[in-house]
């Protein structure tokens, strides 16, 4: 395998006396969906916050492509480096059309490497097609169903052509049909030049889409491997799956 997209080494994040991440280390590879699972308070969202620059670490490192030390970068620089995130609750511009929402996800033409309006339009159309909302492009985002809003927000971050795409509970509140469609979408998003980090509580969904799983507990790695093997691990059963 080549250089990992993200390498977290000895990462510690502390809030007062509470240590949310405790010397955590892991690597996220390009071309894979890497899921983070574990009980509430295990450190999953804190890790996403640290990677995206929202939360500052008190020790350790986070590198992108083995070159960029993200703990020394601000949120804007991290986003411009190619790391984008979809939060759990859909956050779309409801008064704008679906197409205009996607357009807002594209950085400046220079930063996106696009030349001319036609190239930008092609990026928008391709993104709409991938997320399955091409026929809804003229509708106001506020008129969409919950699942469609989830896909639209994925499209907004996808439009920037990210190197690392972080998804926080993308199937929360979805119907079984919407969950199945989201799984199809995530598998379509896999690309040799993109890494996907997934935080999710739906273990069946994780098993369907994830190439690798890291189980966090009290800010540390409890298990890493396949979801199938995680289900069989006594420690994982004890602190998470058995509950």
Keywords:
243 residues; single chain; six-stranded mixed β-sheet; 36% helix; 10 helices; alpha/beta
User: In angstroms, what is the radius of gyration?
Assistant: 18 Å
Query: How many DSSP H or I helices?
Result: 10
Distance between the termini: 36 Å
Order of adjacent strands in the largest pleated sheet:
6-7-8-3-9-10
Task: Tell me the strand percentage band.
Answer: 15-25%
**Helix percentage:** 25-40%
Q: What class would the helix/strand composition place it in?
A: alpha/beta
Query: Helix and strand succession?
Result: EEEHEEHEHHHHEHEHEEHH
**Overall mean pLDDT score?**
93
Strand runs, count: 10
- What's the shape? globular
In short:
Helix content is 36%, strand content 25%. The protein is α/β, with parallel strands linked by helices and 243 residues long.
Folded structure, characterized:
- This protein is of the alpha/beta class.
- It is 36% helix and 25% strand.
- It has 10 helices and 10 strands.
- The protein has helices at 44-52, 75-80, 98-104, 109-112, 117-131, 146-158, 176-189, 203-209, 227-230, 234-241, and strands at 6-15, 18-28, 33-37, 59-64, 68-69, 83-86, 164-168, 195-199, 212-217, 220-225.
- It has a 6-stranded mixed β-sheet with strand order 6-7-8-3-9-10, sandwiched between helices. Strands 2-1-4-5 form a 4-stranded antiparallel β-sheet, with helices on one face.
- A hairpin with a 3-residue loop joins β4 and β5.
- The chain starts with 5 loop residues before the first strand and ends with a helix.
- The model has no long low-confidence stretch (mean pLDDT 93).
């Amino acid at each position: 395998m080549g250089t990992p997209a993200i390498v977290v080494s000895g990462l510690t994040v502390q809030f007062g006396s509470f240590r949310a991440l405790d010397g955590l280390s892991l690597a996220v590879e390009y071309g894979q969906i890497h899921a983070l699972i574990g009980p509430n308070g295990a450190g999953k969202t804190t890790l996403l916050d640290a990677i995206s620059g929202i939360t500052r670490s008190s020790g350790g490192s986070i590198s992108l492509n083995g070159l960029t030390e993200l703990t020394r970068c601000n949120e804007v620089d991290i986003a411009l480096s190619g790391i984008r995130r979809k939060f759990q609750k859909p956050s779309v511009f409801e008064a704008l059309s679906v197409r205009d929402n996607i357009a807002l996800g594209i950085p400046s033409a220079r930063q996106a490497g696009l030349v001319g309006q036609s190239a930008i339009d092609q990026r928008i159309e391709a993104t709409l097609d991938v997320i399955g909302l091409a026929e809804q492009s003229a509708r106001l985002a506020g008129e969409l169903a919950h699942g469609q809003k989830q896909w639209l927000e994925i499209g907004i971050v996808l439009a920037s052509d990210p190197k690392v795409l972080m998804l926080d509970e993308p199937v929360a509140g979805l119907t079984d049909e919407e969950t199945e469609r989201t799984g199809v979408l995530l598998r379509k998003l896999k690309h040799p030049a993109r890494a996907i980090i997934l935080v999710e509580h739906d273990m069946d969904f994780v098993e369907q889409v994830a190439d690798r799983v890291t189980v966090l507990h009290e800010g540390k790695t409890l298990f890493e491997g396949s979801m199938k093997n995680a289900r069989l691990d006594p420690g994982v059963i004890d602190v998470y799956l058995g509950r």
